[in-house]
Amino acid sequence: MHTLLQRALPALLIGCFALGAHAQDLTGRLANIKARNTIVLGYRESSLPYSYYDNDQKVVGYSHDIAEQIVKEIQQAINAPTLQVKMIPVNAQNRIALMQNGTIDLECGGTTNNKERAQQVGFSNTISVTETRLLTKANSGIHSFNDLNGKTVAVTAGTTSERFLRKYVEEKHANITVISARDHSGSFLNLETGRAQAFFMDSDVLAAERATSGNPAGYVVTGDPQTHEAIACMLPKDDPAMKAIVDRAIAQIEQNGEGEKLYKAWFMSPIPPKGINLDMPMSDTMKAVFAHPNDRPMDD
């Protein structure tokens, strides 16, 4: 027995030192999260079906469900069983700045990962793939970008769609007036009230605004896709330890069948608050991402 104890003791000591070292070796944002025992999540208030309020002002959505799984993974990785979650609303204009200045630790909304933004913040593995199109009134006569001459187009401020549209107008010398709103619901309101004749944005956002409107049949998503974009969770820049945990959590979700269930629940089933169904089957590009999780932007 004495001999067995002598043999076991070094292994036990090594295990204890390893646990202690693990806690002490936390760096970057993980160390901050551990020290304050709180992780701060940035969320969107009206980015359906990714992150938005239900009728009880509770945050729900496809991206939010993924964020909750990531939090569990971080909680376990940093050994913080009582980790608190603080929620802060963000919008398209301030989300990058709030990540850069440390106000938020993680944002899973409908944020596009592209090369330009990757110079400012970090991004996780892709969680969704979208394309930009137009939402118009069904009787508008607008079917493509070629029909926008002399028209006003709504877009949400601070988005890649706004950047693309303003660049398009400048480079093509197009006779298009661009008006921006703080959020997607504001952009749709510009279309609904006639201030704009089209709303340019990610097709899933457009489908959601159409479906939740008072007259879905009065609107149509139209036009050839102008861009394809990778949607990802936003992270602190140059923080490989945190990124590794987040990417691992997303890869597990996408490859163990949970991701497909989440997609069906939010994109192909009735969702709160009105029980609308976006009816958007998973694209081949999205299926490829699930089969081989990666963090590559689509503007490579």
Automatic annotation (TrEMBL):
It comes from the Bacteria. CDD domains: PBP2_GltI_DEBP. Residues 1-23 form the signal peptide. Keywords: Signal, Transport. GO terms for cellular component: extracellular region; outer membrane-bounded periplasmic space. InterPro entries: Bact_solute-bind_prot3 (IPR051455), Solute-binding_3/MltF_N (IPR001638). GO terms for biological process: amino acid transport. Residues 38-270 form the Solute-binding protein family 3/N-terminal domain. The keyword Magnesium does not apply. Belongs to the bacterial solute-binding protein 3 family. This is Solute-binding protein family 3/N-terminal domain-containing protein. It comes from Paraburkholderia monticola.
